[in-house]
Amino acid sequence: MALLEDIRKKGGIIVSAVIGLALLAFILGDFLPGGRGGARDLDIADVGGQKLDVHDYERKIEEITNIYKQNTGQSNLDERTMDMVRDQAWQFMTSEAIMNKEYEMIGMTVSPEELFDLIQGPNPNARIRQYFTDPQTGEFNRSALINFLKNKNSDANAAREWAVLEKELLNERYSQKYNGLVSYGLFVPKFMVDNENIEVNKKVDFDYIVKSYNTIPDSSVKVTNADLKKYYEDHKKEWEQTTSRDIEYVVFNIAPSDEDRKAADDWMAKIKPDFEKADNPMQFVNLNSNIPSDTRFFTREQLPVQAAELYDAQVGDVVGPYQEGEALKLAKLANIENRPDSVKVRQIIILPQQQTQEAVQAAVTLADSIKTAIEKGANFTALVTKYSADPSAATTQGDIGWIKESDMQVGSMAQVLFSLKKGEVTRMEGAQGIFVAQVTERGKEVKKVQIATLQHNILPSSRTEQLLYSQASKFAIETRTEAKFDETAAAQNLNKRVASYLGENDRQIPGLSSGRSIIRWAYEAKKGDVSDVFTLEEAYVVAVLKNVRKKGIAPFEQVSGEINNTLHRQKKAEMIAASLSDAAKNAQSFSDLALSLNLPVESASAIAFSAFSIPNAGIEPKLIATATSMGEGNISQPVEGANGVYLVTVRQITEPEEGAAEQAKTRLSTTYTNRSLSESIQALRKAANIKDMRSKFY
After folding, report:
1. By Cβ atoms counted within 10 A, which residue in 9, 61, 113, 215 is the most buried?
2. Long-range contacts of 627-634 (CB under 8 A, 24+ apart)
């Protein structure tokens, strides 16, 4: 059934009863008195007093993972993708907990009649229409929907997957109603429209001069400890911070040694004569190379520079060894053919419903049937619409355009497609699914060559890794304090790296393949502690914990340096402003003022209050605000900016055009409507005071 085939893509993996029973006692131990730590050990979050369970979180991760795999055709997800999946699961669970509580508090419900209307009403939900649209007619098939609903309980999988879809429709409806409440409660007052119109549409042309803070040496400014503490007390809210850590670390990269490189050279020298004699170089490559043979054919321009001479060589000629990155290569001319420079292809993609042998075989059987139907004259466009899993098939009719052999990632597919005549159809299997492809046009034929490339990766040996680990261990043992860490790193000329503001649940450290183990250590260590050796995929790492920030107001000692810079700038601004004010009193014109101060006059045109920056001045909001609020011909009071102190004079003011106010009203209405839901949810998230306890488990 169409719906079952579609929504099964969202189904999770069924945990077997045997495994569930085996784990039951283990899980119950957490809930029974005297267990391994009590029921709350399984809490992964506290959302406004509501506890979320780690098992529910893992089930949500599994669900999203399965959806991602089905949609992308990938069987395994890398660590970065899994981090993204975990974050999506976290956002979903916490938002659901917050919103369900909010719906209950305001008395919002979705009645059975509303749900019925979403599914079977005159205008069903878009997803229902999609699942039950007849591919032949493009019309919604209500009879198919009714028939499915009558029979779904006879299939346990169908019933379960329908329940998931029904819950999604319910959540979607709740969200629509809540969003409506928020957005319909908004309106744009006239004063806001007037302000927006002026801020966006009123433009000014002005001249300005600036005296930089750098013109006054720091030694000319005195800031006392009392000044620092007073500023800190007066601006404490500015120093609110979240929990974070700063570390410094040294990296011992796991890279090949000179000994490893010589061993690779020796291996290549030993095998080269056998490669030269091999009658079947592709098979030889498959048996001896670190990468499989590439059966594609290439033009001269598509060959690597090191092997380009083989284009004019004879079959059997060899070049190399040559080095590409951390690999040595030998290249042998295996074949020469005249082949099309490109082919135009259209395709139908069939995806197995599940990753089982039976499902894959069913997809292959379907693909073979489609291939036979096309060969007998069936309408390709109709078959694409009905069967292809490609989301763009409805608009492209499966046409992927002209492709070059070198563009294809799978050599075996290229071998097949570029051997087909115009109009021929083939069925191919790839990692992304089953393909039924037809060549609709062939480009001009050109000479192409097939190269057998034998690759031997230059890898660090176990001896090299042991030596590097010994170096890292020796460094860690000898540097058990922060001072010793810094001293030894400098003495050994090791390049220290810095990672700042690491969150408790962060998983990555820039420049490292994975930083989770290091981050977990940082939250268990004390300031100044030095770690043991961390073994990563590409390096050994030793770290020192440099700074610990706790949630709340940052202590004075942590921010005193920043305050000192701020006060120095303020005092410099006062000194510069006084000198500019004195000069302005005697100036006959703005140009005379600039001349007397020996400062150049800069110009800016068509600047609105809403502008982000000024040419040649950069981001200077105070300068923009002053210029756009002045009258023509006047000289401003000194303006304390980010880079210096300014004086401004306005040359010309352009008022908003007639009708601009109505446009401003429309723009504001659209902006606030679009922002309403996201900002209300963010406010609810903040009010819920979410306690994130994922670091206990991951």
Report:
1. 61
2. 627/204, 627/206, 627/208, 628/199, 628/202, 628/204, 630/204, 630/206
Instruction: Write down the pLDDT at residue 431.
Output: 63
Contact 260, 461 (CB under 8 A): yes
The answer to whether 479 and 368 have CB atoms below 8 angstroms apart is no
- Predicted confidence at residue 92, as pLDDT, reads 87
Please name the helix (run of DSSP H) or strand (run of DSSP E) that holds residue 648, with its range, or none: strand 644-654
* Cis peptide upstream of residue 321 (ω within 30 degrees of 0): yes
Name the amino acid, one letter, at 596.
S
Say what the pLDDT of residue 7 is.
Answer: 40
- Reported as type and span, the H/E element at residue 452 is strand 445-457
Tell me what percent of the chain is helix, strand and coil, each rounded to the nearest 5. Answer: 50, 20, 30
pTM for the full predicted model: 0.61
Distance in angstroms (rounded) separating the CA atoms of residues 406 and 137:
39
Q: Do residues 238 and 499 lie in contact, with contact meaning Cβ atoms separated by under 8 Å?
A: no
C-alpha span between 297 and 369 (Å, rounded) = 31
Q: Are 531 and 476 in contact (CB under 8 A)?
A: yes
Mean pLDDT by 10 residues, the chain (698 residues): 40 33 36 41 85 88 79 72 85 88 89 88 82 70 83 77 82 86 82 88 94 90 92 90 92 93 94 93 92 86 89 91 93 90 84 70 82 84 80 75 75 72 82 80 87 93 93 93 93 91 88 88 93 92 93 89 92 93 88 91 93 89 93 92 93 89 85 78 85 79
Q: How many helices (H) and strands (E) does the chain have?
A: 23, 20
Tokens 């306690």 correspond to what residue? 691
* Cα(685)–Cα(90) distance, integer angstroms: 13
Distance CA 248, CA 253 (A): 16
Q: Which helix (H) or strand (E) holds 349?
A: strand 343-350
CB 411 within 8 A of CB 295: yes
> How far is it, in rounded angstroms, from Cα 224 to Cα 205?
42
What is the rounded distance in angstroms from the CA atom of residue 559 to the CA atom of residue 232?
8
pLDDT of residue 138: 66
The pLDDT of residue 48 is 85
* 3-state DSSP assignment of residue 533: coil
Pick from 254, 205, 50, 208: which is nearest to 622 by CA?
208
CA dihedral 167, 173, 175, 180 (to 10 degrees): -170
Instruction: Give residue 432's pLDDT.
Output: 67
Report the distance separating Cα 535 and Cα 541, nearest Å. Answer: 7
Q: What is the pLDDT of residue 310?
A: 92
pLDDT of residue 394: 67
**In degrees rounded to 5, what are phi and psi of residue 544?**
-125, 135
> Residue 55: in which H helix or E strand, if any?
helix 54-72
d(CA 281, CA 273): 12
Residue 174 CB neighbour total at 10 angstroms = 18
The count of other CB atoms within 10 Å of the CB of residue 237 is 7
Query: What local confidence, expressed as pLDDT, does residue 521 receive?
Result: 94
